[in-house]
Amino acid sequence: MPNNASPQADEVELRPLSARSVVLSLLLGLHPPELPVKDLVRSVEPFGIAGSTLRAALSRMVAAGDLRRADTVYGLSDRLLERQRWQDDAVHPETLPWDGAWEMVVVTATGRGAAERAELRTELTRLRLAELREGVWLRPANLLRSLPDDLGQVAERCTARPDRPARELAASLWPLDTWAGTGRALLTHVTHARRPSDRFTAFAAVVRHLLADPVLPPELLPPDWPGTRLRAAYADYRRELAEDARVRDDRETAAGHTRA
User: Fold this and answer.
1) Residue 8: enclosing H or E segment and its boundaries?
2) Strands, DSSP E only, in the chain?
3) Which are the contacts of 100, defined by CB distance < 8 A and separation ≥ 6?
4) What is the reported pLDDT for 1?
5) What phi and psi values does residue 238 have, to the nearest 5 degrees?
6) Hey, is 248 helix, strand or coil?
7) How far is CA 136 from CA 133, 158, 176, in A?
């Protein structure tokens, strides 16, 4: 049963963005992930978020441990820095040539509560494994990524070469056609989005979709797989944001010199 279900093919899931989600999306895409409050105020204006609303959200986020504050600069907390590293790896995964082998993780721990089981399922899904049957997780061994140190306490990891044809097995583990259809719909949507707020919301959906990409070897993918195009579009968008920020900084510097 596929474990990383996506929206129906050709649907685009655009979530409304609160002040908190806009701030987190902005900072998660920055390196280093921090901005002065004046830049945050300017960045959320296209979303109709007032400065007073933003400042209230920032205070709540600091209290909740989402952000840290140094004078007028806000940055991601250590907990969310880990999330940023995971997101960076997920959006730009490192792959290896595939020789036909599969990673297999077999859950061996017993007597765990529902919350612990759910947390492990979330972690294994984040690692782009899919559940063949309860407690048995698989994926092609083509990803270069580290596994959690404590995984060995609850599961055994091994390499397998299933008898079942690889393409057939991959199609049974992931909703590949659905993912591809949604990916192509997102590409169409971001191409036609013009307003900064619309583009920001659309690319937030692109990032969420890329997190669910199984990153399979090319020979196991359906035709016209949009993963590479989605990543290229997102990289172009990040460059666009960086260029816009540079232009704004240059204008502010020039205005400052004029006033002086």
Assistant:
1) none
2) 34-36, 67-70, 73-76, 102-107, 130-133, 136-140, 155-160
3) 161, 166
4) 44
5) -60, -40
6) helix
7) 5, 11, 20
